[in-house]
Amino acid sequence: MRLFFALWPPAKTAHSLNRWANAVMHEVGGTLTPTANIHLTLAFLGDADPALARKAAQAVSAPRHDLHVDDGQYWSHNKIVWVGPRSAPAALTDLVKQLQGALREAGFKLEERAFAPHITVLRKTSSPRALPLLPQVEWPVTEFLLVRSRNTANGSAYEPVERFPLT
Questions:
Q1: Which one of 36, 42, 71, 130 is separated from 147 by 20 to 30 angstroms, measured CA to CA?
Q2: DSSP state for residue 124 in the 8-state scheme
Q3: What are φ and ψ of residue 138, in 5° steps?
Q4: How far is Cα 153 from Cα 9, in angstroms, rounded to an integer?
Q5: If we measure between CA atoms, which residue out of 54, 31, 78 comes closest to residue 148?
Q6: DSSP secondary structure string for all residues of 55-118
């Protein structure tokens, strides 16, 4: 089972980010991330045992917090437009540190690069001249999810496997 851990925004937040990305897409082209797939990846596991991932996640005890999506950028090396926090809140950094530590302790091999919180909203784009201002959105982070990813004829489909509440 192909798995990852992520934060999922409230529906209103996802719709606002999707509308913004749709406007950007008219200038730069590319493939829009469907509203239902908008998320912030915390740790990608690949093909993994969900029971082992679940057990590792249960060791995490992190606080609820708000995620401020106040930055949008284009990464030329992989031709994506992303949005995210200008700086990661301490609570998010702590959540990721705890989760990745528990996953490594359980034997998972994770990427070695530093965590860069971002939400991919467009793929395969050309470079924008300038990105429009982001809408002000509220993203209260009250839980993180273990998610299954499946490839379909219409792209990736994500299915929540389990939700882990924050304190």
A1: 71
A2: S
A3: -105, 130
A4: 25
A5: 54
A6: HHHTT-----EE----EEEEETTTTEEEEE-SS--HHHHHHHHHHHHHHHHTT-----SPP---
d(CA 8, CA 141): 8
Is 0.90 surpassed by the pTM of this model?
yes
Six token digits for residue 55 = 């057990």
What is the token pair recorded at 92? 């998010």
Q: Are 58 and 164 in contact (CB under 8 A)?
A: yes
Per-residue pLDDT of 94-122, as tens digits, reads 999 999 999 999 999 998 889 999 999 99
- Nearest C-alpha neighbor of 92 from the set 118, 62, 122, 114: 62
Name which of 131, 161, 155, 138 is nearest 28 in CA terms.
Answer: 131
Please give the structure tokens belonging to residue 7.
């934060």
Cα–Cα distance between 47 and 11 in angstroms, integer?
Answer: 28
Q: Contact, 57 vs 164, CB < 8 A?
A: yes
> What are 34's two structure tokens?
């469907």
Q: Which residues of 14-31 are buried (b: 16+ CB within 10 A; e: fewer)?
A: bebbbebbeebbeebebe
| Residue whose entry in the numeric block shows the structure tokens 């106040």 | 70
Rounded Cα distance, 52 and 31, in Å = 34
